[in-house]
Specification:
Number of helices: 17
Structural class: alpha+beta
Distance between the termini: 92 Å
Radius of gyration: 36 Å
Largest sheet: 7 strands, mixed
Helix content: 40-55%
Number of domains: 4
Oligomer: single chain
Number of strands: 23
CATH superfamily of the largest domain: Histidine kinase-like ATPase, C-terminal domain
CATH architecture of the largest domain: 2-Layer Sandwich
Length: 662
């Protein structure tokens, strides 16, 4: 052997160590990034679920406060303290699992009515929310810090409103106590299966609900909390990768503000838990890299040895040629079986029923159960060990069944994966020809089927939720509509429910994504659009093409219906020469606003503005200001009604196009 050949073999030996090490390092770095990216996606998706849940609960509480406020409006102390008022509060609270209780208190902090029994001597005047409403008439709906109810002895936090007397003075409060445990249970169910922390926070750092719970139920975020810093800066949403001020644990933490409420939701996965899968991958990569290095070292050593004994190898090859020819025929037949057996599409194994032992297994089944070829060859692998404990008795029954008739009926079970997840599979069998007592096992991954079933169930729950919302709106229209006669009542209710049904029909055509504003308006004003100037009242639309978000379609439809109904009865659309102009445009302002201007001309002269507001006016005001977060201005000129609705674009719009709609 020459000196250059010896040097070449030494280089090959060195490369057999360096190349696997470099490949291992590159694969480890790439996989770490992928694991963290997947973890970040999971954290943000979970935060979005928590955000939607919290928004629905808080908005529902606000609606309940409005309903109670409307019910007790104008009552004196005697009527408030009457048993009928508490009965009403119990009936309002009963359908809502998230509500602990509902209370009405007087200006001194003593409870006048409640959804459960209480001690009349107990005062809530020291409660944070009571002090805020007493000192700040403009506080609006207020979210309190967590506390323990004196009547309920249950951990709670309150959503409250101020009660004012006829002179505008402080008359007490109405508050709904919400259950932090309800939020914690939801967070536990919604969270992915790794170590985490989820919480509901007020912008001043008060912790309203948290999972897992803290030792101190009334804890607050520390002054050095990164989440508190972002909330103070007004950040709407974001991701934090810093140690927690509560337990010092470093988490990948996503947070999001809940609508217009001074409340944030946050969810974080422990960084160590997110990287646990990466550590497992490192071990697998290390085994592969080590095996590759050993293989390369062995190959290089064999090459060096073969170079020295080339002559002897040539003789051995000639002797092996004859034996190889005979073996090739046998290998060809085995290859055909192996081609099917080693398919990556389905797990397969040959199982001896008498010895309860796996004779052969393909790589697909090893991967399903988290096993390895080395473990199988050393006798340390058994697919039954990867079976979830609740399915192991079934394994024993099907083995006994197969011993009796040579095969067993297909069944389903779960494998426990090394990362703690479960893999659902369907097991079937067939007798192995020519070998009694042995069966071929076919193991099919059915995780996609299970996911499809889960998506179907989620869709059914979503349909149920939307149907309940629609029915609740219809019930409110029935309950609150006032009319002098039965026929008038039927017309009023029919119109409001018809507007709701039309909005639902438009949403269904877009799969609940959005509805064009012009399309929504045309549905309400269709009889008056495109009418000749001398043929009766008419309506004109002006504005850009915009898409209304699904969550805003029904409230906006109800508001437009109330305006159209008023115009048809008393305004411009009640006379042949009447003209209604509805235009919308974008106006500058924080976050940009969509302004709708409703202008009536040619109707009966307006002698003076109405002195009282009916259900329609209350619906219009509640819809625009509370549900849509906008501003409402009504002006009764002698020529007719002029109404301006300013709606926050970020809340009501799904999209905005550059084209114009006439």
């Amino acid at each position: 052997m020459t000196l250059s050949a010896l040097r070449l073999h030494r280089i090959v030996l060195l490369a057999s160590l360096l190349v696997p090490a470099l490949v291992f390092g590159a694969a480890a770095w790439w996989n770490r990034g992928e694991v963290l990216r997947e973890g970040a996606d999971t954290v943000q998706r979970t935060t979005a679920i928590m955000h939607e849940h919290a928004a629905k609960i808080l908005d529902t509480a606000d609606l309940v406060l409005g309903r109670v406020a409307e019910h007790v409006d104008g009552m004196d102390v005697a009527r408030l303290a009457a048993p009928e008022t508490s009965t009403f509060l119990r009936r309002v609270r009963q359908p809502y699992e998230q509500f602990v209780s509902i209370w009405v208190a007087d200006a001194g902090g003593y409870v006048l009515a409640g959804s459960q029994a209480w001690d009349p001597a107990i005062s809530i005047a020291d409660r944070e929310f009571f002090r805020v409403h007493r000192e700040r008439p403009d506080a609006g709906a207020f979210v309190s810090a967590a506390f323990t109810g004196r009547a309920t002895t249950i951990a709670s936090f309150a959503i409250s409103r101020r009660r004012s007397d006829a002179a505008g003075g402080f008359a007490g409060t109405i508050h709904v106590a919400l259950s932090p445990d309800y939020f914690a249970r939801f967070y536990a169910e919604a969270a992915p299966p790794f170590a985490h922390a989820a919480g509901l926070f007020r912008t001043d750092g008060a912790i309203l609900a948290r999972h897992p719970a803290l030792a101190d139920a009334h804890s607050r975020l520390g002054p050095g909390s990164p989440l508190l810093r972002h909330m103070a800066e007004g950040t709407e949403r974001g991701v934090i990768n810093e140690p927690s001020s509560l337990d010092g644990q470093t988490r990948l933490y996503a947070f999001r503000k809940v609508g217009a409420w001074p409340v944030y939701v946050g969810f974080g996965g422990d960084r160590a838990a997110l990287l646990a899968r990466w550590h497992g991958n490192l071990r697998a990569y290390g085994i592969v890299a080590l095996a590759a290095a050993l293989t390369l070292l062995l190959v290089a050593g064999l090459a060096l040895r073969q170079a020295r004994v080339a002559a002897a190898a040539e003789a051995a090859l000639r002797r092996e040629a004859t034996a190889r020819a005979a073996a090739e025929a046998r290998q060809a037949a085995e290859a055909r079986f192996r081609g099917v057996f080693e398919s990556r599409g389905i797990g397969m194994a040959v199982f001896d029923l008498a010895r309860c032992e796996t004779i052969l297994v393909n790589d697909c089944l090893l991967e399903m159960t988290g096993g390895s070829r080395a473990a199988f060859e050393e006798g340390r692998w058994d697919c039954r060990r990867a079976t979830a404990p609740e399915h192991q008795p079934r394994d024993e029954r099907v083995i006994a069944e197969a011993r009796g008739r040579g095969w067993f009926d297909p069944y389903e079970k779960d494998y426990l994966c090394p990362d703690g997840s479960r893999l659902p599979v369907r097991i079937s069998s067939a007798p192995l020809p020519g070998e009694p007592g042995r069966v071929v096992l076919l193991v099919q991954d059915i995780s996609e089927q299970r996911e499809a079933e889960l998506r179907r169930d989620l869709l059914m729950r979503e349909v149920d939720h939307r149907a309940k919302n629609a029915l609740a709106t219809a019930r409110a229209a029935l309950r609150l509509t006032r009319a002098p006669t039965l026929d008038a009542f039927v017309r009023e209710v029919d119109g409001r429910i018809g507007a709701l049904a039309q909005a639902l029909a438009l949403l269904s055509t877009t799969q609940w994504h959005s509805v064009g504003l012009a399309e929504l308006v045309r549905g309400e004003l269709a009889p008056f659009l495109g009418a000749p100037r001398s043929g009766g009242p008419r309506a004109e639309l002006e504005g850009p093409a915009v898409s209304i978000a699904a969550t805003a379609v029904q409230p906006l439809a109800m508001a437009l219906h109330e305006l159209a109904t008023n115009a048809t009865k008393y305004g411009a659309l009640s006379r042949p020469e009447g003209l209604l102009t509805l235009r919308w445009e974008f106006v500058d302002g924080p976050g940009e606003w969509l302004r709708l201007t409703w202008l009536e001309r040619g109707g009966p002269p307006v002698e003076e503005p109405p002195t009282d507001s009916g259900f329609g006016a209350r619906v219009l005001q509640a819809t625009v200001e509370r549900q849509l977060g906008g501003r409402l201005a009504l002006r009764w000129d002698r020529a007719g009604l002029a109404c301006e609705m300013d709606l926050p674009a970020a809340r009501v719009l799904a999209g905005r196009l550059d084209s114009r709609a006439a």
